């Protein structure tokens, strides 16, 4: 009897050992983050489990951010925290350019001698403060592109330690920013390096604050309920490198924002007269078109905005105009307007890209904003004269569109509205398949 018990125990121990070895050997093909819309501040947030012991960290998403940064000044406790030395390879790759030789405060998270130094940027308040690079344990969910998989760990994911004051303007409870930008230390690059998959990520922002959107690090498929595999619907346009920084204190480093080549705008097929020079990026990094999760609505340089507004008014002259509602300039009554599965029945806006055959079509759901029960406004704002970037495609225009950022092939894939395919960004299956 005792021998039988020992055999059962040994079998269970062997099974447990093999299972643990298999778990350690599990190599995800992609990773998954939930994305929540903060409807009060019009930000998009996610959550990452970091530190030892693990703590859920809420972060505001900046698709063009250089790296992930968190507040290390208040409440940061972790046994797996490690500062990044000045002479390390990752410090050089991060384009630090400086070293914190002696920290004047007691040693701890965010303050160690001989540490890789960075300027850390909050794009919501356009403020910069000093910080240092570090690494710590992170746990994130895997995916096969169809549903959630087992959680996987990164023992030492690099990030930047910021100050508590930098949290001003972020979504309530946020402890920093998840930077997804065009750099070797952004989350897409670090996750790709840790798990040996391609430097690709897809972003799908939900239009509802009640339902999560999704970010998938790694290649497709991208399947949404109900069996809607949308990667075959992607159209592609090159990602353009802006040779100068476009965030915070401008530097000689290239921008980490994602720029695309906008060549034309058409409204219900009618071309908008534009100053083509504004659509190009000059030698100082001014002009061009970028994608942003920080700007809630598309911002356009004044002459571009006025030209778009002029044609849009002409195409909607049969509708009842009402008083404007800030920050919007053109608003209409939605009484008796009706609706379609693609939103209000208003003129389509086509963003012509690098080739005549490639355009990003914006339907009513993404062009109009419901500001009151019976009032709709055109969701584009005047960016004034001489903005750093001529056109910034904002969050509202990105919602329920799947975007694939391929850093290796330097291209952007986009679907236009998923509503056209009878699904939404909120329809990803977050239920675990294991």
Relevant terms:
434 residues, alpha+beta, 21-stranded mixed β-sheet, four-stranded antiparallel β-sheet, 7 helices, 31 strands, 15% helix, disordered N terminus
Strand content: 35-45%
- N-to-C span: 36 Å
Computed CA radius of gyration, to the nearest angstrom: 24 Å
Largest sheet, strands/sense/barrel: 21 strands, mixed
Number of E-type strands: 31
- Taking pLDDT < 50 over at least 5 consecutive residues as the criterion, the unreliable ranges are 1-23
Structure write-up:
It is a single chain. This protein is an alpha+beta fold. The protein contains 7 helices and 31 strands. It has helices spanning 2-25, 89-93, 187-195, 276-279, 302-315, 364-367, 395-398, and strands at 31-38, 43-50, 55-62, 69-71, 82-83, 99-100, 115-122, 127-143, 147-162, 176-179, 200-204, 213-217, 223-224, 228-229, 235-240, 258-260, 264-267, 270-271, 289-291, 298-300, 321-322, 331-333, 349-352, 359-362, 368-372, 375-378, 380-382, 391-393, 401-406, 411-417, 429-432. The strands form 4 sheets. It has a 21-stranded mixed sheet that branches. Mean pLDDT is 92; it is low at 1-23.
In a few lines, what is going on in this structure?
It is built from 7 helices and 31 strands.
Question: Which helices and strands, and how do they pair?
Answer:
Elements (H helix, E strand, L loop, with lengths): L1 H24 L5 E8 L4 E8 L4 E8 L6 E3 L10 E2 L5 H5 L5 E2 L14 E8 L4 E17 L3 E16 L13 E4 L7 H9 L4 E5 L8 E5 L5 E2 L3 E2 L5 E6 L17 E3 L3 E4 L2 E2 L4 H4 L9 E3 L6 E3 L1 H14 L5 E2 L8 E3 L15 E4 L6 E4 L1 H4 E5 L2 E4 L1 E3 L8 E3 L1 H4 L2 E6 L4 E7 L11 E4 L2
Parallel strand pairs: 3-10, 4-9, 9-31, 19-28, 20-27
Antiparallel strand pairs: 1-2, 1-8, 1-12, 2-3, 2-8, 4-10, 5-8, 6-7, 7-8, 8-9, 11-12, 11-29, 13-14, 15-16, 15-30, 16-19, 17-18, 17-23, 20-28, 21-22, 22-26, 23-24, 25-26, 29-30
